[in-house]
Amino acid sequence: MKGLFDFVSGKMENKEVGIIGTGDFARALAKRLTYSGYRVTCGSRNPQAKNLARIDSALTDVSVRSVSECIQTCKILFVAIPPEVHNTLKKYNVGLAGKILIDISNPTSEEDADAMEESLAENLARMLPAATVVKAFNTLSAYGLEVDASITNGNRDVMVAGDDIQARNTVMQLARDLGFTAMDHGGLKMSRELERIPVLLFNGWGLATKTVLTLFPAWFALGYARYYILKQPPFTLNLFPVNFLNKIFACMAVSLLASCFVPGCFAAFAQIRNGTKYARFSHWLDAWLRMRKQLGIYGLMFALMHVVMSVVIIQPAYFPTWFVSSSVQVQVPDGGGTVTVPMSSVMNLKGTFPVSEPAMLQPYTRQKAPHESVVFSFDNSHFGKDVFFKGNARCMLSLGRFVTQCVELCLFQESAWYCSGC
User: Dihedral, CA atoms, 205, 211, 212, 215, nearest 10 degrees?
Assistant: First the structure.
C-alpha cells in the first residue's frame, strides 16, 4: 500500500480507483469520484454490454472493463456487488494481494444482522486473505452520493473500520476528497456495528413508541370513565368520534411535550446530588433523556391532530349554544305588512355569518297573486345600507337566495337585486 497516501501533504498520490460492479450504487460512486478528480474503472462480468454513458452522461469518462482488468489496474477497489455473490471473487485472491478492498455491503434486514456471527466485511476478509479489507461508505445511499449533502441536508459522515491503520487512513482521506467527514471507527470487528446502522428501522424510536402506546390507552380509559360512566359532564354518543377523541389527543400532546422537559429537571437534581456533571445517570433516566426528541415529535403530532379536530367540531351540530339564531324583518311597501326571514348562524374561518331559510316565506307568497309585483327592503341596521329585492310573487323563493348572497358577500355593489325570471 506504499505510495497510495502522502501523510505530509494529506493527499492521495494514486488517483486511480476501481469499482467492482455497475449497479446503482456503483454508478453513483463513480460519478462522485469523477467529480472529485479521480480516474474510475468499473469491473463487470460482461463489460461489452455495459454502456454507462447511455445511462448517465456524467459517466462518459468512466471505463468499463472485466473484473480481472479492473483489479489489475487499480490499487483501491470498491466492492459494490451484493454480498450473496462475494464468493465469486475468490478466484481473484492472488491478484488482490496488496490491494485495498472497500466493502460497502449491508445485511438485508435487522434479523439477518442479528443472526450473523461475523460481519459481511469480516467474511470478505476471511474469503480474500491476500487483500486488505476496509469497511466504509455503507451508511450512505446512492442518492446521497450523487447529490451534495450540503444541499439535501443529508448524512455527511463516513465511518471507516479496518485492521490496517494505513489502509484506514487511506480510505478516510478518500472520503474527505469526496466531500464527506471521515470518522475512524477502529478495527474490522467494529464493522458489525456499522452494518447494523442502515437496517435499523426507526432507530431510537422503540421505547418512545412503547411509551405512546401505553399512555394513549390510559388517557382513553380515564376519559371514557369520566364522560361516559361517571358522566361528569355527560357526553352523548354522537360526540364520541370527534369531540371525545379530540380531548384524548389534547391530553396526549400535553403529556408528551411535558415529558420532554421533566427528565432534564431530574438530571439537574441528580448532578446536584452527585456533586459533579460527569457521573453517569441511572439507566432509566439515561433512556428517558435519549428519547426526548422522539417524544417531542409524537407530542407535536398529537397537538396537530388536536388543532385539526378542534376546527372540525366548531359547528352548530356539536356546539349549538355558541350560535345565536336571528331573523331579518322584510318590510312590504304600500301597507303590505312585515315578513320575517329566519336566519341561522354558521361558523366559518372568518367568524359567524347568517344564512336565510327561504322555505319560511312560502306561506306569505301564497297570499299574493302571481302577477302582483312586490318590493322587499332590508333595514340598514343589519347590512349597513338599504337594499331591496324586486320581483313578483312567483319569485319569492328567490328572496332566500338574495338574502344568502347579501350576507355571504357582505358587500353590495348595487342597492337593488332583481330576479332574473321577472
Answer: 180
Number of H helices, E strands in the chain: 16, 16
Beta bridge partners of 330: 339, 378
Q: Residue 251: what pLDDT?
A: 93
Q: Is the pTM of this model over 0.85?
A: no
Return d(Cα 136, Cα 83) in angstroms, integer: 15
DSSP string, 159-209: EEEES-HHHHHHHHHHHHHTT-EEEE--SGGGHHHHHHTTT-TTTT-HHHH
Cα 114 to chain centroid distance, Å, stands at 28
Q: What backbone torsions phi and psi does residue 85 show, to the nearest 5 degrees?
A: -110, 15
Beta partners for residue 113, in sequence order: none
pLDDT tens digit sequence for 402-417: 454 444 443 334 444 4
Query: Domains, the chain, ranges and CATH?
Result: 5-196 (3.40.50.720), 206-313 (no CATH), 322-418 (no CATH)
CA dihedral sign, ordered 106, 108, 109, 113: negative
